[in-house]
Amino acid sequence: MLPCASSLAVVMMTGLTPSIGAILRFISIYVLGIALVLFLVVITFNYTKNMVVEKMSNFKFNINPELVSGGLIMTVGFIYLSYNWMGHIH
Fold first, then answer.
1. How far apart are CA 33 and CA 6, in angstroms?
2. Spatial distance between the Cα atoms of 67 and 43, rounded to a whole number of angstroms
3. Contact 80, 87 (CB under 8 A)
4. Cβ atoms within 10 Å of 7's Cβ, excluding its own
């Protein structure tokens, strides 16, 4: 398995820079950016899960909110997996 191009770009930039400060800056910007994106994804899933649970509360059967959240996460995962199957490169 090959890593994505964005992580390879950080590795290549750190290899071309002789100063330790610049290397730490590149790596920290990459790590903080990934952390911010993952945080926003989690917040979005939690908000979406709450909306779906509120909409489905009118039904007569109970649905476990954790299963709804897991289903949303798996759906997005399959969508991204289908990008790789269709030849889309990120």
1. 11
2. 17
3. no
4. 12
